[in-house]
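anyone seen this seq b4? input:
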Amino acid sequence: MWLAVFRTVAVSLSLVAVAVRLFLQPLAEPSGADKLTFTVIGLVYLFTLVCGLMLRGGWAVRLAAVVQVVGDLLVASVLVLLTGVGDSPLTFLYLLAVIGASIVLDGRGALVAAGASALAYSLLLVAVRARWLEAPSGMGNLSQQRLLFLVGSNLLALVLIAVLAGYLTRQLSDTGGRLSEREADLKNLDLLQRQILACMPSGLITCDARGRVTFVNRAAHAILGLEGAAPFLDTPVESLLPGALGTDVHQRRRELSVQTRAGPRTLGLTVTGLEGTGGGTLVVFQDLTELRRIENDLRRADQLASLGTLSAQLAHEIRNPLAAMRGSAQLLVQAPDVDPTSARLVDILLRESDRLSKLVDDFLRFARPPPPLKRELDLAVLARETVEMLRADPLAGQVRLEQALTPLRVSVDADQIRQVLINLLRNAFQAAGPGGRVRVELREADGQGRLSVWDSAGSIPEAHLSRIFEPFFSTREGGTGLGLSTAHSLVRAHGGTLRVSSSPRDGTEFLIHLPPRG
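predicted toks r here
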């Protein structure tokens, strides 16, 4: 195709040169040579157009190449004839035809073109010398020695050019082939690299020496919640990972807590300097939020299990003397000669012993909750009934209570889950206060039931979130600190989890994950 373009440009320049020559001559009729020149130029345009269409259509590419070479030889022969054959300055056109043949065909094609060129030139010389064709400059007087010299020298030149052009073309073809293979390898490597970066579960961010982001992979988008965010390339990496670079960018491994659009995240971070990039940095990180949460749950479960064992033993030891003390107090109050002051003190003793007994019962319920008696039910119905029951609570009348309950069948102990909901809702009523909002929501996600109790207060400090399920930990005056601990134990007995998040902006949410029915 490029050879056809080159030929078109060369012929166009020739056409311009002939037209300028005729324009500068006095007004006269064009000679026969001029007419033949225009005819040849027109034929070159025609066969170049035909070859171009053949190449563009991908049809008979080899045939199109042969047609181009034959056309070049014919054009060269006509131009050589018009310019004097033996004395023609255009005999180099045969060399161009041979070079073109080596490009579009191969070394063997170049040799064939060289032989055809030598044969055509020799026939022209013989035909003009024998006066079979007419040519300018008196070629009929060409001696036999001169004829042999012209034929031999042109044949030698054409063969040498054919061999050299064929060799160079072969070398160029081999080099081009190797280059194409390397280019294909690079494309495959680039594709593999992109696939690796896209599929790797770890987030990856690169930045330049100024700390400006140059690349963020798909996992980093998901971990940092960057989907749909404003363009962040060429932004400071500290805007995405505050404190990521730190003081020592070569520190092997550390953890970093960041606030993302998806909420707070705990990241395991590795920062490495990129060699050969003028001070660039590679940041690789994993989302450890869920792992740390599970570790905290397991640690809390171990602590609660140990504390539960100790609490059960302690409660058992308290129960017996407490029962003896209460029985003795009842006997005192039944005595006929008891005075009013003693009776009042005995009443106080009975009342406080009852309160202590209830506290021991709650403690035992936390320490050793009864195994759940599961049966399949619609959790939305259970939640709705519990909410309606609590509407009579004076605290519920001060808040706006909302429900978003999707029908969901699960296998649970109805009494225990109702007790969990009562504890969470009463806490939410107290936290929200007059004019606040409380919402109960039930939905299914990832095959699990997700039951949440949310209040608008968001009043749990960050320092208390890690201790909120500990027994006897309470920030409310008069609270025993066993309600949330018991709720946590009951949910854990069902094979689920109970988690909490709280902030003044987003409110407080207690989220219960219940396993699928089965």
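The chain has a mean pLDDT of 78. Residues 144-199 form the longest helix (56 residues). kinda curious what u guys think
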